[in-house]
Amino acid sequence: MQILWWHWMVLGMGLALAELALFSFFIIWFAVGALLVGVALLALPGLSFTAQILLWTAASIVMTVLWFKFFRHVNKTRSGQADEALGEIGVLVSAIEPVGSASGRGEVRFQKPIMGAERWACLADEPIAAGTRVKVLAVDGQFLKVGKT
């Protein structure tokens, strides 16, 4: 059986439909590679089956590598992620009693908003007086766990 240009086009469209169903943004590059081979086979009808497979493989790999290396946005926003608060320095507005005591909570204020707020309820493993500079050690739900700097 001879592979014709439209076979590659059908394969490309099938892979593109699979991409729409899976949303992986990985299969699309194999689909584009198949479409490219279909176009190449239109221009060069005598292209051997081995050359077609090699062209499809090379085109798919090159487009996948280019996507991951250059075109994919790596500067994702970190808004809303707790990691951005780790290590931030703030000043205690109210004293903290250790976890497990009656009050157990304090409040820390930052110079710039952290995760959308300048003031956060906080916890600590040790008593810390108001006005002390503290460092965010962890984010535990709605509370920041802080320690002395």
TrEMBL record:
Protein name in UniProt: NfeD-like C-terminal domain-containing protein
Entry coiled-coil feature ranges: none
Keyword check for Transmembrane: yes
Membrane-spanning ranges: 20-43, 49-68
Keywords associated with the record: Membrane, Transmembrane, Transmembrane helix
GO cellular component labels: plasma membrane
Pfam families: NfeD
Domain NfeD-like C-terminal, residue spans: 83-147
Locations listed in the record: Membrane
Topological type in the membrane: Multi-pass membrane protein
Main localization of the protein described in the UniProt heading: membrane
Organism expressing this protein natively: Rugosibacter aromaticivorans
